[in-house]
Design a protein that fits this description.
Helix content: 40-55%
Number of helices: 12
Strand content: 5-15%
Number of strands: 12
Structural class: alpha+beta
Number of domains: 2
Strand order of the largest sheet: 1-10-9-11
Shape: flat
Order of helices and strands: HEHHEHHEEEEEEHEHEEHHEHHH
Radius of gyration: 30 Å
């Protein structure tokens, strides 16, 4: 009886397989978009063999974020813009003692701007940043520490640095252990910057964490288009499969897809997108019109929008032009810049700079109250200024020709002078 059931099931599977093959007959491109699980941190610290807290299920989540940064052009561009705006033109202060310090903050000859730029880049990329301080007789040096190499101790009192966490067991002896300020060991300490995330007590998470799959899609679209250009591959359908796929599972899936769906006609082409989803069994099929590229272009646009939104960034600053427009005007860019400054940049600058100012003041006794970042807008604001509202008549005459003599009422703005003339004319009429 059991043998009969197996035989019947085998026949049903074979029938299903044949039907699918006859309906499709397809070529395949397989794209694995699954992202590492980063849903929570370890809660039971006693079960950890090491003294440090892993970051991500395999302790390589920062390494994954670093790889995404190298793969997605949109994502990398936004990160670079945020870093550039946060760093600005450098630092300004009226304190002469502080001016000398910010120009040379370590033995490598780096300025505070150099270190600050790396801190901002890490903070936006990883949601964490690390600055090492080294106190010496009469001074202090600051060094940026690569956030991807850092793991926090279980007590959150120290930071462990290792150049290759993927091979930690083989290079364990290369690990450095440095206390978190205000604790100091051998004149060394670490400042840890953390972008707050609920339920994460050790590490921060970057703003864009909700768009990880979209960033992966951005990379795969570029790679796919390159392959399409070389091989003439144009999809007739995109099949999105939700599931937690590792490398082995992904390979097994594509082999099963080939065995099940490949027919002899080869008259259709299918792109598989495999990603993490809440429903591991759900599958979505998007049929594309081969006569139009609009569906695939829409996927790229949606991907770009989701990435920019997750970053809390402005499309105008990223070169994204609204539908129906040729380009972004100067005024639109300036408005976008103001929004970015008020919602992202100034807050991040304060987060990164405040601990540095406190350490300098506490350890060196230098007043840092006026230490600020000099911001540089991406486009000049002079175009928005009306000379009639800011320059007197004589000032404008001098700018046109320095030999022009001053005139009566020339110390007034043009608008004020015109008002006086109107008033005088009205009086005469009366």
């Amino acid at each position: 009886m059991q043998n009969q059931k197996r035989q019947n099931q085998k026949q049903r599977n074979q029938k299903k397989k044949t039907q699918i093959k006859s309906n499709f007959g397809a070529k395949y491109a397989f794209v694995n978009l699954s992202t590492p699980q980063i849903s929570t941190e370890v809660k039971d610290l006693d079960r950890l063999r090491e003294d440090w807290m892993p970051f991500g299920k395999d302790n390589l989540f920062p390494q994954y974020l670093a790889e995404l940064k190298r793969q997605s052009s949109t994502h990398r561009s936004v990160l670079a813009q945020k870093t550039t705006f946060t760093t600005g033109a450098g630092f300004a202060t009226e304190n002469e003692e502080l001016k000398g310090f910010i120009e040379d903050v370590n033995a490598n000859g780096e300025s505070l701007k150099d270190c600050f730029k790396k801190l901002a880049d890490d903070y936006y990329t990883y949601g964490n940043a690390f600055l090492e301080g080294v106190i010496y007789d009469g001074g202090i040096n600051f060094y940026h520490k690569d956030a991807s190499t850092a793991r926090l101790s279980k007590t959150k009192s120290h930071v462990y640095f290792n150049p290759d966490w993927a091979n930690y067991k083989r290079n364990k002896e290369k690990t450095q252990r440095i206390p978190i300020y205000p604790n100091v060991a051998g004149s060394r300490f670490i400042i840890h910057y953390k972008d707050y995330e609920s339920t994460f007590n050790f590490y921060g998470l970057p703003d864009y964490v909700a768009a990880l799959e979209h960033i992966a899609i951005d990379y795969e679209i570029g790679k796919y288009n390159h392959t399409a250009f070389k091989n003439g591959f144009s999809p007739s359908a995109i099949v999105t499969v939700n599931g937690d796929f590792g490398e082995a599972e992904a390979e097994k899936f594509v082999e099963t897809a080939k065995d099940t769906l490949t027919g002899s006609g080869n008259n259709s082409k299918i792109l598989f997108l495999v990603k993490n989803g809440d429903d591991a069994n759900s599958t979505d099929v998007q049929v594309l019109n081969n006569k139009e590229d609009g569906d695939f272009l829409d996927l790229q646009k949606l991907t770009d929008q989701n990435i920019i939104t997750a970053h809390r960034w402005q499309p105008a600053l990223s070169g994204i032009v609204s539908s129906g427009k040729m380009n972004n005007t100067g005024s639109e860019i300036r408005i976008a810049y103001d929004l970015a400054m008020s919602t992202v940049i100034r807050d991040t600058t304060n987060i990164l700079l405040s601990p540095i100012k406190s350490v300098i003041n506490r350890e060196l006794g230098i007043d840092t109250s006026d230490l600020t970042v000099v911001y540089e807008p991406p486009i000049s604001f002079l175009a928005d200024i009306d000379p009639k509202q800011v320059l007197t008549v004589n000032e404008q005459r001098t700018m046109l020709n320095k030999d022009l003599p001053e005139i009566k009422d020339g110390e007034l703005l043009i608008s004020d002078r015109q008002f006086i003339r109107v008033e005088k004319t009205t009086t005469n009429v009366d």
